[in-house]
Amino acid sequence: MQLTPRDAFLQFGHVLQQQLFPQLEAAVGPLGPHLELLASVISLVPLGRLLSGGRASTGRPAKDRAALATAFVAKAILNLPTTRDLIDRLRVDQALHPFCGWRSPLAIPHESKFSRAFAEFAVGELPQQLHAAVIEATQRRRLIGHIARDSTAIPARERVPEALIEQKRAAKKDEKEKKGQAGEAQTPQGRLH
Fold it and tell me: What are the DSSP calls for 96-155, one per residue?
């Protein structure tokens, strides 16, 4: 039996509700709606295969890139505007920092490391890869129709300028006058009307 995309997504949601969320709550404590959404996204897309396994720019192994990538996704889901806000949230939220991969608030790296890692993710196009992986995982066999409308402003005249209208009127008037003079010259004078 082949599942429709809706059935596959419902089955995935059932697995999340019945198996994953209870295990996460046992490990990190109660989950709020934002952490449930983060868990859904992270379970849907394995970050490990999207991250490069090379060394960081400082020469040390990039062992916590998965935790930083999870924090990167959490920053977007929690709608945190700055990296400093994310770090503050990680330090106070008892469920978020272990969920991202740090055992204690003291293990959370400095803001400069977050900035370097986030810059590396941007250069490596991690957000685009995550989006493509989510679409591939959820919409693989589905045809999606889309209508794109362009609302870009196009520089154009809304009205014809008055000077141009006056020029055309003057040109027509000149033509009529010329026709009128030429018409008078061509009419026979000797005829009676």
Answer: HHHHHT-SSGGGSPPHHHHHHHHHHHHHTTHHHHHHHHHHHHHHTT--------------
Distance CA 42, CA 28 (A): 15
pLDDT of residue 65: 79
**Which residues make beta-bridge pairs with 61?**
55
104, two tokens: 């204690």
Tokens 């924090």, located at residue: 71
Tell me if 87 sits within 8 A of 108, measured CB to CB.
yes
132-164, pLDDT tens digit by residue?
877 777 777 777 777 788 888 878 767 778 888
Using only C-alpha atoms, the chain has a radius of gyration, in whole angstroms, of 34
SS3 content of the chain, % helix, strand, coil (to 5): 65, 0, 35
Tokens standing for residue 105:
């608030």
Residue 46: both structure tokens together: 């394995």
Backbone angles phi, psi at 32, to 5 degrees: -85, 175
